[in-house]
């Protein structure tokens, strides 16, 4: 979900599953095929899922009975899912929402350190309000959904398991089911019914900021893991299905989120239909067969159609062909991205097959009102409303929500000793041990003898937050300290325990300095935490432009000290130089709260025996070049540095020469223009007008506020440009922005320009500012009034601005959130078209800073 603003053998179903031929044979040219005319023949390719959860006549009769008694208002309320920061208990009492959620970084009482009792208290109060029929006439219980994606990761003290990419390397479905069961237990302690997991994305381009949420680039592991984690969360159908210690699972995100072009989050997937089946749908084959009760729609588009509004995928494929009889929930205001929709109104999504709007922020109230009106008018057929509500009721009945005690009275509720319990942490440590992949081990350096003097260096060594990554207490996993992880351990703390118990000594020095020469140095370093969108990258070079960790490795290496690198990352990265500067190199991924699990594999016991061998194997191929961002098993031109399935064991006598190429290869000539506005704003970018009174996103032909008026105009073809008129009463302007920052370093390095066509109609201003923003807090402006004054009036001209002008003023091109804003306090009327960031052209730019 998004915060606004800011080789296993698989079971064969009735369809083809992944084979080398089917994956490799599809060519890019074929990917352009239109999907607008889906045929029965195409639909018949998709698997029919034999779910282990069967239709029950008694349940269906209950659904019919409940539905017959419900008013239209009560039905629409079941389809609305607001967020805890945006509703009160009284709102729940008045409307009787079918569900609600806490997004990443949302806590009871808005308190990051909320106790389990605080979580239970909120769950209890919301539940009691939902069954209170005094205002809305409904006593249908609500349910709370949360992102428990590597343990109950929003709650202080919970057991945090390795992120999915590490679990994929472990290749242990039985362990995955155990992890899911533990997660369900800790979630149930806090009175929550439903988790938004598992993510079953099959990642094809590792630039994607959600790569670590994927188990593998290969659908085999994903299919088997999906079945295991659903069984662990919900319980097995023939045993404890949705009992007192289980939660409702969500298989997400439907469909193809791991296959977007260039790995852009919420971007465009151009896979063929057969590729969608063979690669991206396999997680649903496993998860739906195990009986997953909910599916979350994906933000991405498939051949130009946003999935939240795609009836072929949501209804024809998922519900009709696959036979899914649970409900489809949206992602964070994802319906607002559907063509013709806003966050406040989207009948297109419901008609396409979405059953529950996930609608955070204050948009829930107008969305409720508009959906109600659309149902009354027939724009949304009543049959579709009844189908959606029937699906919601079916899941609630199967989960026993009508019969179970209230959240505070449930079997596990309040048993806080279970949160972070030793038995749970023991399983997490096992997962950490099994996830480690040994990439290099010259002279069989690892595992180390513990009885020696060990230097531990690197900024990730004693940092539980960094080793845990995104979706850790906060959404992005940032602003956390070790004290936020009671009961957890950093990698350094685990090393210290191993070494001192064996009679050795250890020193911690982040920068690698020392007084006593060490026998060996362990350097723990890697990516800073990030979550969706914010983690998207331009390529896979580690610490591009700032090689401080490499410098640390080389300093130690130059002193003749054996160097063990422990690399923390959410994806494979190009680290050739770092590999060259290391005697041993371990891919530790994002191990979570139990860092001591890493140390248990790095060291031998006090008798010199191997405690735990390196058993992790790559479930993602490792790149040989920085621009080798989409390298996947079965590719026709497959040539990674380390292949899928690679991983050394302690007994392997394999030496890797320190001569891996450190030359950064980037094909600047192949860099294409980045369109921001081409006849309209280009997805995923958005456009808004603003003044001191706020901003308004442009979604209509004509939009205005107290300062700015804008409408579409014609330049070359109908409505391919926009006119912006500022009345001069106060400062105002327009902007192009994204939901997340984008990595635009390639354009800056290619001496690129910001280019746009402009038609000056009126200019009565002392200053016109062209601004670019980046995160976390950098904003810089260039006054272009003199350039505008020199342009001919009422005539289209092309204006180009050297990107170096922004870089010189402090813009970090790795994190650009707003590539263009034009503002003024004066009177201004201009037409604008064809806005883009182009590689090259700086030397001939209208405004140049080279």
Topology:
Layout: H1 20-25, H2 40-43, H3 57-69, H4 72-78, E1 80-81, H5 89-95, E2 99-102, H6 116-131, H7 133-136, E3 143-146, H8 164-170, H9 173-189, E4 194-195, H10 219-234, E5 250-254, E6 268-269, H11 273-280, H12 282-289, E7 294-297, E8 301-302, E9 305-306, H13 311-321, E10 327-329, H14 347-352, E11 357-358, H15 364-377, H16 382-398, H17 422-435, E12 437-441, E13 453-457, H18 464-468, H19 491-501, E14 505-508, E15 520-526, H20 548-558, E16 563-568, H21 576-580, E17 584-589, H22 596-602, E18 674-677, E19 686-691, E20 694-697, E21 702-704, E22 708-713, E23 721-727, E24 732-737, H23 745-749, E25 753-764, E26 769-774, E27 778-783, H24 785-790, E28 796-802, H25 803-808, E29 816-824, E30 827-838
Parallel strand pairs: 1-11, 2-3, 3-4, 5-7, 6-8, 7-10, 13-14, 13-15, 15-16, 16-17
Antiparallel strand pairs: 8-9, 12-17, 18-30, 19-20, 19-24, 21-22, 22-23, 23-30, 24-29, 25-28, 25-30, 26-27, 26-29
Helix pairs in contact: 3-16, 4-15, 5-6, 8-17, 9-10, 9-17, 10-12, 17-22, 19-22
Give a quick rundown of the structure:
It is built from 25 helices and 30 strands. With 850 residues, it is an alpha/beta fold. The chain is globular.
